Amino acid sequence: GDSVTQMEGPVTLSEEAFLTINCTYTATGYPSLFWYVQYPGEGLQLLLKATKADDKGSNKGFEATYRKETTSFHLEKGSVQVSDSAVYFCALHNTNAGKSTFGDGTTLTVKP
Amino acid sequence: DAGVTQSPTHLIKTRGQQVTLRCSPKSGHDTVSWYQQALGQGPQFIFQYYEEEERQRGNFPDRFSGHQFPNYSSELNVNALLLGDSALYLCASTVKGDSRGGYTFGSGTRLTVV
Questions:
Q1: How far apart are CA B98 and CA B10, in angstroms?
Q2: Is the backbone of residue B100 left (phi > 0), alpha (psi -120 to 50) or beta?
Q3: Inter-chain residue contact A99 with B58, CB threshold 8 Å
Q4: How confident is the model over B3-46, as pLDDT tens digits?
Q5: Residue A97: closest CA among chain B residues belongs to which residue?
Q6: Which residues of chain A are within 8 Å of residue B43 when distances are taken between CB atoms?
Q7: What is the pLDDT confidence band of residue B96, given thresholds at 50, 70 and 90?
Q8: Which helix (H) or strand (E) is A36 found in, with range?
Q9: DSSP assignment string, B86-98
Q10: How would you class A96 by CB atoms within 10 Å of its CB: exposed for 0-12, middle for 13-18, buried for 19 or more?
Q11: CB-CB: which of A41, A51, A89 is closest to B100?
């Protein structure tokens, strides 16, 4: 079945540091890929998406590229801020199954 | 523009009891999916509803059931509660046929079973 593996956390960075959170997946067919962010006490918010190979999703300075050859969708940001502290989830959506499969999340803490 | 709203926000139930959680999808969305998020884990798919019928189901027992109403709102029912049912229950909505666009999630209902 479908699965998503995320880099284990927690990750602690200083403000303005470079961020990478690794994500790899296993899926049949051609899933769409997503990054969601969850702030304390809230639901998940869609951060960015890519629907086909070589697509780059971007939002709020975050980027991720759909790499079919390596089945990866790594999240990057060039300069993190304290306000980026949250839990980040990588996910794939299997259209045939009508559902998304999520990784276990990576907790990011950014210190001033 | 209201997003996805869920109620209640928190709930405490005793083992063996039954619970109903409610969800109103984002305006313009007609498809509702329910997910269970255990502490420290990613959400797990329970089921999906559109056109008032369950369309897809994850690996959850029959104790978990749902309903969708003509106004697209939805309920999740869990019978014979177990301690292991304690989790954050998330409702997510989309437009039918636009699943590649990603979900809009509600803030969830925190269920504690004691």
A1: 31
A2: alpha
A3: yes
A4: 999 999 999 999 999 999 999 999 999 999 999 999 989 999 99
A5: B56
A6: 44, 89, 100, 102
A7: confident
A8: strand A32-38
A9: -EEEEEEEE-TT-
A10: exposed
A11: A51
From residue B59, alpha-carbon distances to A1, A43, A90, B46, B55 in Å are: 12, 22, 20, 7, 14
Helix, strand or coil, per DSSP, at residue B47 = strand
- Name, in order, each residue with C-beta under 8 angstroms of B66's C-beta and a sequence gap of 6 or more: B34, B46, B47, B49, B54, B74, B75, B76, B77
Say yes or no: B59 contacts chain A, CB-CB below 8 A: no
**Residue A109, H or E segment:** strand A106-111
Chunked mean pLDDT (size 10), chain A, 112 residues: 91 97 93 94 92 95 96 97 96 89 96 96
Structure tokens at A8: 């284990």
User: What number of other Cβ atoms are within 10 A of residue B75's Cβ?
Assistant: 17
